[in-house]
Design a protein that fits this description.
There is one protein chain. The chain is globular. Strands 1, 2, 5, 6, 15, 16, 17 and 18 form an eight-stranded mixed sheet that branches. A six-stranded mixed sheet has the order 8-9-11-12-14-13. The protein is an alpha/beta fold.
Amino acid sequence: MNKVKVIFAGDTFPVSNNMRLFAEGRTEEIFSKKVCGLFQTADYSVCNLEGCLTDTGKPVQKVGPNVKAPTNTLNAISSLGIKAATLANTHTFDFGTVGHNEMRSALKKYNIDFFGTGDSINDIKTHITLDIKGKKITLYTVTELFAFNTPDKDTPGANGYDEYRICRELAVLKEKCDYLVVLYHGGVEMTHFNTAGIRRRFHRMADNGADIVISQHTHAIGFEEYYNNSYLLYGQGNFCFNLSKTVSEFTAMGILLEVIFGENGFDIKKHLVHRTETGCEYDVKQDFSAFEERSSLHDRLIKGDKDAEDFFEKEFSEYCRNMWFTRLMRVFRGINPEDDKALADLSEKEQETYLISRFTKKQLSAIQMMLDNDEFNEIALNFITQIIKNKE
């Protein structure tokens, strides 16, 4: 029986402390000998390229880091055996159209396929289809959108999540392939627990043909669910993305997902990798106990277990509270938080003038991004709901 092994790696990108190693193609120093050996056993492998590979691109104005590395750092990614890279993410356009085009040209030079973006909203390459050992496996990628990576009829951008369109496209693609895998770039960062909205999205994609849905972007390992013969991974964690010098419990570990596609189904094998000073390496303990406990709690939640539901709500609410005070409140408070002048007494024009005086352009951009993003919407709404309950 011909089986096909595909490895899915999470967020991957060269950073300052390993760019030289990436450029020189020193894979074992970056990823370790065992991880390199694992990739060599695969028929195909794909990663999320979490940044922009450019030599001349200029950073766009945005909230958060502009992630960049030289194009020659693809040496190590190619040498590792990565055959394709997803570009539908929140950093691909950090250095504008020039940077994005340079990255695509470099990927072509290194014979690495890519998908998830396009020159306009009408020509986005949403998927690739592998034809290996007689099996057709379609990989589809989609991301949350922000102002700087949203495509238009004349503007390049990424494949953004529009539920009606995405589910319709998945249903059509499923009719033409044996297996359909969705690489979803979204969810809540730096937490082991995701939102009810994300879980609903994954169920809908599975209902419309996705056999596997993998959440990247979170930089943290979440939990898994088997849903109506589909496999859902809520949070894969980083593969090799050491952007922050501080190692937290969330960024210390990631999952390499090995999928064996057979004649009548697929098998999942998970491999833990942990962060090192220069990259990552295979974790000798392979301890999935905390992951399995979260997955079990989620299964109980789906079945209506009140204790599990309360636990998930408590964990996520605590995360929302922390995010509000460490990030969101600083955005909404304005330049002069001591000024408590009531906006209700002002006309619309006066309100606009007042806001312009109260907020910097960067702060207004941050508010725009957060209001336009499902993740921050759910965080803010959850916290405000807590405050309302306290007032009652």
